[in-house]
Structures are given as C-alpha cells and as structure tokens.
Write a structure and sequence with these properties.
It is a single chain. The chain is an alpha+beta fold. Helices cover 28% and strands 24% of the residues. A four-stranded antiparallel beta sheet has the order 1-2-3-4. Strand 1 and strand 2 form a beta hairpin.
C-alpha cells in the first residue's frame, strides 16, 4: 500500500489535505479529501473517500481526477502510483487478508 498526502489548492476553502495511493489487497487506487468540520477543525474529516471497493478506482488517473479539483498534484504522481502498483504484483494476501475479503466481498478477488 502506498499513500501520498497532497496540500490543498490555495484560496478560500475548507480542504485540509488530500491523499491518493494504491491499495494492493483491494487492487484499487484510492482518493481522499479531508475538510474542516466543526468536530475536526485541524485534521479534517474524510468527506470524499473513493477506492474502498475492489477495483473501484482502477487507474492512477481515476484517483488523481478525484483530488485534482482540491489539491496540488505533482506532475509525476500518476507514474509514481503506477510504479507502486507494479511493485506489489508479486505480493500475495496473507491468510487474514483472505479471510476478511471472503467475509466482506464473498471472494478473495
């Protein structure tokens, strides 16, 4: 799994930070936007969170498209995420990951 924190775009908004990354067990990229809330003024709360289902965000570009309106995205981020995905190809799920996937999704995807 990889995770990259991205700073919010400048200007008036409630975005604290954005995150994108690769989740090997789900075989999906993910994207999160954290915004200030009354309960979480400093850290923010994940008000947008995609990539929690197997294959939901299948490419780096789909994850980046979610965060791009809110965060500063490095030009090489798609390639970095693709490299993270390829580097994890040889890894296999442990028995606990297999059990959780079967319970949550009905398969080991």
């Amino acid at each position: 799994m990889s995770r990259y924190d991205l700073p919010p775009k400048p200007g008036p908004n409630d975005v604290v930070r954005a995150c994108v990354g690769w989740d090997r067990p789900l075989q999906a990229f993910f994207a999160q936007i954290f915004t200030r809330t009354e309960a979480e003024d400093e850290e923010g709360e994940a008000t947008i969170w995609l990539g929690t289902e197997p294959g939901e965000l299948p490419t780096p570009e789909t994850a980046i498209a979610v965060v791009a309106p809110y965060a500063l995205v490095p030009a090489d981020l798609a390639e970095t995420l693709r490299t993270d995905m390829l580097a994890s190809r040889e890894q296999e799920d442990g028995r606990h990951q297999v059990a959780v996937k079967q319970r949550l999704f009905g398969s080991i995807h």
